[in-house]
Amino acid sequence: MHSSPDSLEHQSGNRRSWLARAGMGIGALALLDLNRRCPAAETPLASRETHHPAQAKAVISLFMHGGPSQVDTFDPKPLLNEHAGQPLPASFANLNLEFTKASEARLLPSQRRFRRCGESGIEMSDLFEHLPGVADELAVIRSCHHTEFNHAPALYLTHTGSSQMGRPSLGAWTTYGLGSESEELPGYVVLRDGPLKSGPLTYGHGFLPAVHSATELRNTGAPILYLDRHATLRDSDQRRILDFSQTLNRRFQKAYSHNTVVEAQIAAYELAYRMQATAPEAVDLSQETDRTKSMYGLDQEETRSFGTQCLNARRLVERGVRFVQLYHGGGSDGWDTHGENDAKHVRNGRQIDKPIAGLITDLKARGLLDTTLVIWGGEFGRTPTSEGSAGRDHNPYGYSVWMAGGGIRGGTVYGATDEFGFRAVEDRVQVRDLHATILHLLGLDHTRLTYYFQGLEQRLTQIDGESRVIREVIR
């Protein structure tokens, strides 16, 4: 078949039009693919702008479940030894001790020796052999305090800002405010070595959308339960099944637009599909060198468990996870040393010392410490008085927490307790102040990070008291 010049010109024009349209079509296909892979298109976990320039972009929280003793770790009190066995001064009689009557309490000396560490001279006890090597990275706050002397309300308070269960945890607020940097891994991950005295609500999402809930990773077996694909199911088949179920989910969500559970379910299904390939790799420690494993204590039985958590935490923040919550001391009494305080602190100190020092050293060597905020502490401290068999009671009135990296001024000691280490007396720091400081380092203004619930603009630092950023520990 022959064509006339007119028809050839017409076809040429059509070809140019077609190429133009096709070019736009190819661009549109690329855009659709990007949208499909972008968290903003699928979930509310897309990375968000901060309120002000952030100094940290990720958090690793090292939580000592049960409450470590400040006078045996980071707050030396020589008078305890001078007045060992003597009753408390009358000025302490109004303290609410949980298991010990103040009138019967006797001062219990610390069996630990303290020494100055690093160029900054921060005082640490001999519980720690390796941590002194990173002393100049730490800012120790000795004046933390609150009034909850039972474990469950104290755990809720230190995680959520309220002693009542059901409010969002710091990790959930963090992903709510910042989203996630990773498309293939959760924004908020929990690793623990046993049950918590207050249960999973401790690190829950509360009234925030369910998409901000924590994902638990395990040290052994499948890192996330029920994530493995069935052996007989091909990837293409699974993708078709997922697409069909997501279509139904989106129809339901459109009909009930305020149903955040469905929104979270849609996001969770997509994330789970991607995690089937990425999560096992993220916690595959066989990729690490023997030297790195040794740095975290994986070559020693007493440090292997917590060392594995710490090494996993580094790998997770390296891959864009926003908040990693680690727990030590779950299961039995952990740091809850009502009896044999010194022996149990020696045991616990050995389990965490090398892994934590290795974590900070490794983060710094990889250029991650400047943007990763590391936090250490428990739900409260312990009394300087004796209980039971050389034990110590709960003490929320004055205890120690430290932070490192992520904008922290290392080599700093802030605040003080009284001469026996019972009460915070100088530059007192509330839990709300700690939370406000952490959010500030992440680039979030704690007064602007709010969520409307039950007729109020709720926030982590609540609205029933003043909170402040502890600028003295920030670079």
Short description:
The chain has eleven helices and 16 strands. The protein has 475 residues and is of the alpha/beta class.
Q: Can you give keywords for this protein?
A:
alpha/beta, 8-stranded mixed sheet, two-stranded antiparallel ribbon, 475 residues, 11 helices, disordered N terminus, 14% strand
Distance between the termini: 80 Å
**Would you identify the regions where 5 or more consecutive residues have pLDDT less than 50?**
1-13, 15-42
Strand content: 5-15%
Helix and strand pattern: HHEHEEEHHEEHHHHEHEEEEEEEHEE
How would you sum up the global shape?
globular
Helix/strand structural class: alpha/beta
Radius of gyration: 26 Å
Number of helices: 11
Helix fraction by DSSP (H/I, runs of at least 4): 25-40%
